[in-house]
UniProtKB/TrEMBL annotation:
The gene is mdh. GO terms for biological process: malate metabolic process; tricarboxylic acid cycle. Residues 156-323 form the Lactate/malate dehydrogenase C-terminal domain. InterPro entries: L-lactate/malate_DH (IPR001557), Lactate/malate_DH_C (IPR022383), Lactate/malate_DH_N (IPR001236), Lactate_DH/Glyco_Ohase_4_C (IPR015955), Malate_DH_AS (IPR001252), Malate_DH_type2 (IPR010945), NAD(P)-bd_dom_sf (IPR036291). This is Malate dehydrogenase. Belongs to the LDH/MDH superfamily. MDH type 2 family. It comes from Marinobacter pelagius. NAD(+) binds at residues 11-17, 105, 112, 129-131. Substrate binds at residues 92, 98, 131, 162.
Amino acid sequence: MKRPVRIAITGAAGSISHSLLFKIATGEMIGQDQPVILQLIEMPQAMEPLRGIAMELEDCAFPLLHSISLHDNFEEGVVGAHYVLLIGAKPRGPGMERSELIATNAPIFAHQGQAINKLANRDVKVLVVGNPANTNALIASRNAPDLSPAQFTALTRLDHNRTRGIMANHTGANPKDIRRVTVWGNHSSTQFPDLHHATIYGEPALPQIDQDWYRDTFIEKIQKRGSAIIDARGHSSAASAAQAIINHMHDWINGTPENDWVSMGIVSDGSYGIEKGIIYSFPVRCDYGRYQIVQGLEISEFAREKMTLSEQELLTEMETVKDLLPK
Ligand code: NAX
């Protein structure tokens, strides 16, 4: 049996974690041969519900769950972590502007970045889920100067999975036969779900669907899917977000399938003309625990306009938090 790895998770008593923790403990995230230590982190007022979740995990007697520790202090919770999932964030209150949400969460992620820099394993892989995920990941990464920016990612896999799932439903194909979709940009309503390079049953996807439907209905449906779920359910996506976290980490650690790629919010290296340094969702292939941006895709004028809009939004978000971004 392998030595256990440490996974630190914030927001561990929240809705997403309630689905996620049990999947991790069954080996879905890393592998069926990898024992895990869960280092669960919450706000002091949520420690009691967290204790309840820990009891339930224990009661499942998962063979891969080596041990669980509970923390109301981020520094303690992140010690030695090989993987850090930053899920907890202050939610958007009634009437709160996106810029206020960004400003409220920014100092928390700066602090968490500093603690990861000091206390986590040197090869740590960090995924930021708490919104605004891209900019929170940027802040955490810039506050961790001893680690590579490539170790910090933001979740856009839910948007990627939505693109595949909704396309599958629309065309009657199985989601596994829908490949090479890309979500570009920010995890927000400016994201661009791009089907220009996608395939269905190995053939180009766009000629198989109605162009007006793609441009006028589909793109907006993906961009606003989160709000549609809140309207219908009264709560934001939780189980599907947990599944996306599993997929993101699994593929980052174990590699992407042949003939396909995935979307990840990662630091831009200037590929496709996107401003260097921002955390932007790109198409990537993973291998041996590393990812690489898929290069050489042709970008139409239509796509470029949408990619730029999301880039501009991220640059504005970056400006809002510039005081928390050490050079
Ligand atoms: P919940 O409100 O159910 O749970 C959040 C939990 O985080 C709470 O238990 C809270 O006590 C804890 N928390 C808050 N600040 C913390 C901190 N500084 N340290 C430790 N714990 C902290 O939210 P949930 O539905 O689980 O969503 C969590 C976050 O994911 C939200 O910010 C949400 O906007 C974001 N999402 C991001 C998605 C993405 O694709 N990037 C999709 C799903 C989700 O909307």
